[in-house]
Structure formats: C-alpha cells, structure tokens
Hints:
- The protein has helices at residues 4-20, 62-73, 77-90, 97-110, 114-126, 143-154, 158-168, 175-187, 195-206, and strands spanning 214-216, 222-224.
- It is mostly helical.
- It has two domains: 29-127, Serine Threonine Protein Phosphatase 5, Tetratricopeptide repeat, CATH 1.25.40; 131-207.
- A two-stranded antiparallel ribbon has the order 1-2.
- A hairpin with a 5-residue loop joins β1 (214-216) and β2.
- α4 (97-110) packs antiparallel against α5 (114-126), α6 (143-154) runs antiparallel to α7 and α7 runs antiparallel to α8.
Amino acid sequence: xKNPARALAVLVAILSTVACQxxxxxERDEVVVAIGADAGDRGTILDTTASPDYGSGGRLTEEIxxxxxxxxxxxxxxxxxELATRxxxxxxxxxxxxxxxxxxxxxxxxxxxxxxxxxxxxxxxxMSWPPNDLLGLxxxxxxxxxxxxxxxxxxxxxxxxxxxxxxxxxxxxxxxLEQGLRFIYAELGSxxxxxxxWFSGKLAATGVQAPDFELPGYGFDSLRLSDVDxxxxxINFWTPT
Length: 241
C-alpha cells in the first residue's frame, strides 16, 4: 500500500464508528423535538435553550431517561430532590415524570415533610400511565393511595387521609389499610355507631354507584345488579360475534 499511515487512520475511524453504534449518547439537536399528543404518542418536548450538560438540546432517549432515573433512585433526601427537580425542569414532559414525582415524595417523606410528600405523590398519581380509573385510582401502582393517605394523616388531616385509605381498599386488600383506618377512626374520637358502620358509610360515599338494572341471564332467567352481593363489581360487555 502506497500510504500505510493513511490506511491505518481510515481503519481506526471505521473501528471507532462500529464501536460507537448503539451507544447511549446525547446528540446536539437545535430543533425542538415534539413527541407527544401531536405525534400520537407519549414523549417529551425538549428545551434547546437550557444548559446542555444535563442533556438538554439533545434527544431524551428511553435509555438515557432510565439511566437518569436510576441515578436519582440511588440518592436520598436533599440530593434526590435536587436531581429530580433538575430533571423535571430540563424535560418537563418526559415519560418518566410520574416516577420522578414519586421519588420526590419518598424524599420529602424521608425528610419529615408529609405535606410536600402527599403533594408529590398525588402529582405522581395524576401523571401515572396507564391512566387512572374513574375514582382517580391507579391501575398499576396500588401503593400510592396508601402512601398518600398516611401522609395526609401525619400532616394533621386525618379525614383526607381516611378518604384516601378508603379509596385504596377498592384496589387492595392489604391488612395495613384496615389497621390505618382503625387508627384514624380512634384519632377522630370513634364517631358514629362503631368502626364497621363508619367505614361502610365512607365506602358508600367513595364508590361510584351504578343505577340498578336487570339483564337476561345465561342459563338462568335474569339478574339484577342489586342482587350481586360484592364489594366491587366488574361488568364486561362483550359479544361472541
């Protein structure tokens, strides 16, 4: 070969390019990238004017977001709040926003601030995915209503705490829920005719009451909704055709 030095340089460049393929990196992007409602998918809108050292001005990939969240999860207290707040400021519409608010709630709880903890956890619940049900309850993270209820109770709002714990009983049968409700019931001075009656009243006021109706049965005459003796009833409308 006439120019071995040049050939060696080309070979090094090729190897470097191959080695870098698939690497988790941030690339400068002067165009605001919108991946969200306009694009038919959840995503993020980037602020290219923010400081680039934390990734702004580049595409926020799923790998990068996951790495940042793992880094934040590995911290505690004030450091966690600082890093989470910075991430939310840089990427206000990222898919991991709900998880970041939940981590902030954990940090506030650790720092002894139940008011801010409850607010952060409620924000996490509002932004959770899949979306919440009709009662504002999560379809996946059933721990959040329990945590929110206790935080409100610790913040001096036992009635709000009782409402959240009651809602949590609709999606979880953990024994701590009843224990927490009994504790709040005693803190409120044991109102009413006993705990069971008090809890039944709160449950009736919390759940969505469907109007009574009757449907023809399959293998029996008919069935009325009011005849179903269950705490929670799921009605699935379907067709075999």
